[in-house]
Amino acid sequence: xxxxxxxxxxxxxxxxxxxxxxxxxxxxxxxxxxxxxxxxxxxxxxxxxxxxxxxxxxxxxxxxxxxxxxxxxxxxxxxxxxxxxxxxxxxxxxxxxxxxxxxxxxxxxxxxxxxxxxxxxxxxxxxxxxxxxxxxxxxxxxxxxxxxxxxxxxxxxxxxxxxxxxxxxxxxxxxxxxxxxxxxxxxxxxxxxxxxxxxxxxxxxxxxxxxxxxxxxxxxxxxxxxxxxxxxxxxxxxxxxxxxxxxxxxxxxxxxxxxxxxxxxxxxxxxxxxxxxxxxxxxxxxxxxxxxxxxxxxxxxxxxxxxxxxxxxxxxxxxxxxxxxxxxxxxxxxxxxxxxxxxxxxxxxxxxxxxxxxxxxxxxxxxxxxxxxxxxxxxxxxxxxxxxxxxxxxxxxxxxxxxxxxxxxxxxxxxxxxxxxxxxxxxxxxxxxxxxxxxxxxxxxxxxxxxxxxxxxxxxxxxxxxx
Length: 467
Ligand code: ADQ
What we know:
single chain; alpha/beta; Rossmann fold; nine-stranded mixed β-sheet; six-stranded parallel β-sheet; 17 strands; 43% helix; binds adenosine-5'-diphosphate-glucose
């Protein structure tokens, strides 16, 4: 049956597929990937019957569609040259630093751009045969900004939505990009474009009016005969998942065991991030070093634990960040560790969800101090896991989450003295104030969850005015 207006079929498009290959001996099987986005969209695909289009990771492989766990999966495979040009190059060497306020110098290489156009076309070609008349296509993130236009040129009937998970820079920075008009026009073929915050949506509206023929005021743009709704849709977490992990009996045991290992009388300060230069791990370490240098707290009183997931290790800026972080950890411990009491613990690995929640529950202070971040889910996950109502969140003003989590201790991550002072404030914060602030943080994360977020975006894409 052709889909009706209220029951349009749905295609999700993201750089990565929601499944990964797991090898066991000589055979391999697909497994649904852990992670928020997949968890939120999977039930929708199961309910509406739809597909997910994405790269399975690695080089080559089969692009034959298959069914897994109630979803139709369509792999878009990449050659070694495309991984280098499209993924490591244009996506992570050009767009990522440009969109994060030029924290590293973006490289504008023409060969990377050509590869980006080629792979976006490959995605559009893969999507088209999957979509029925009037279907909804929801495209995610900065890797695929040209896909809306490529699809629209062939299929005027589709409802196309795009959500950007990362920031969009001020037009003055975005204007540096040689292919700025192509990228904006690629996006402007969508019906709905969603951003993490109002400020970032404003950047996009200003850039579009300045650098393309688009006109309009408020959150509606017009380009030729097409109307585009541009709006903030701040992403949320699966609150129930975190609360039930935190309430599990085993979580209490894991937390007690962590506290015992790190020293039950010491204050535990925690950082959890992908090892990415936008997350400010190096600056955070310098702030901890400054706290120890001031002498009010020593390694006998506190320890800092940094958990960092390996990330994009083939991109130069990431390899050098890893070296910098490892050197800083060594330097601080060399200077400030006490016999049997390390000042900084550094774990370069991914944790299970259960262990992650146990760390959140064990941490007296959580440092979420990115130099720039679209949202930052760790901040919300920490608040969700603090079922005892205590704990202090130190949060960067430059994370999207700072718009919602106003009762965190807000810090400027470029100000090392200011951050050191904030750590000291957090370490000595009276329990009554901790509880007052944490209550407000927990109310904020309870106000809507990841499923509400997806429903709101899809409501807007369907054309509901109040979404
Ligand atoms: P990221 O920058 O990858 O994504 P972030 O918001 O920091 O995302 O979330 C990372 C996720 O990875 C969290 O759910 C966290 O639990 C998990 N994680 C991190 N370290 C981990 C570890 N060591 N072990 C296990 N799990 C770990 C982009 C944007 C963000 C935006 C998200 C969602 O850059 O700004 O919030 O998308 O839109």
